[in-house]
Amino acid sequence: MTLYGVGLGPGEADLVTVRGKRVLEHADVVYSPGRLSRSVALEHVDESKIGDLDFPMTKDEEKLRTAWKAAAAEVAPRAMEGDVAFVTLGDPNVYSTFGHLRRTLEAFHPDVDLEVVPGVSAMTAFATALGVEVEAGAGLSLREAADGASPTGPGRMILFKVTDIPATHEGLVEAGYDVTYGRRLFMEQGETAVTDDPSELEERDYYTLAYAEKADLVVESATAAFERDG
Ligand SMILES: C[S@@+](CC[C@H](N)C(=O)[O-])C[C@H]1O[C@@H](n2cnc3c(N)ncnc32)[C@H](O)[C@@H]1O
């Protein structure tokens, strides 16, 4: 039998894929690493199917390894007997807790079959939410900007974990970027916001990303001329 890593998408229940929904409905147990992913999963499965696992909120690597070994030891026998799902927001292979579980299972329970159901990642959903087009020929880099970091370099970047907007904003503007922020995009839980004014988002919120584009970036696609010339 199988452990499925299921990507739930950004938060709205109807952005779960058809395949993800089918896997959730057929799974014997559904594990979720957080309150938000649990609330999305509950739109598709009964609460009685939700499994119990402890997930540590720590950066201590030894504690993390111990906790993931315990989580894998709980999940592995269930996944040998039946089908089990482990859900994550977005896609399971993009900056996700599923990676810890997958590596731990591969190391200590290699007989467990693993399958991943991709989900709509914030990495792509941001484009629609912010009205950004990543046109053919363009490059786009994904970076983290936790704790006020402001990575710079590429012409266009999407930044995850933008927890200290004023500090990140200052660094990006100094480096010549125009920046738009997106908070709780396509999420039912909490308020969605899209703005290029950092003062509107003073409160910290983990579910915040930024799209940064070099102010002097030139868009070369043929039809871009229509936007320039009308
Ligand atoms: C640990 S990463 C998880 C990414 C997720 N696996 C995915 O594929 O979207 C969490 C970061 O993704 C971004 N993020 C995820 N979902 C978001 C959403 N609905 N709206 C805005 N940002 C989101 C935020 O920057 C957040 O700090």
Structure description:
The protein is of the alpha/beta class. It folds into 2 domains: 2-117, Cobalt-precorrin-4 Transmethylase, domain 1, CATH 3.40.1010.10; 122-224, Methyltransferase, Cobalt-precorrin-4 Transmethylase, Domain 2, CATH 3.30.950. The chain is built from 7 helices and 9 strands. It has helices at 18-26, 35-41, 61-81, 98-108, 122-130, 165-174, 224-229; strands at 2-7, 29-31, 84-88, 113-117, 141-144, 156-160, 177-183, 193-195, 208-214. It has a 5-stranded mixed sheet, sandwiched between helices. Strands 2-3-1-4 form a 4-stranded parallel sheet, with helices on both faces. The model has no long low-confidence stretch (mean pLDDT 94). Bound molecules: S-adenosylmethionine (SAM). S-adenosylmethionine (SAM) binds next to helix 5, strand 7 and strand 9.
What's this model, at a glance?
GO terms for molecular function: cobalt-factor II C20-methyltransferase activity; precorrin-2 C20-methyltransferase activity. With 230 residues, the protein is α/β, with parallel strands linked by helices.
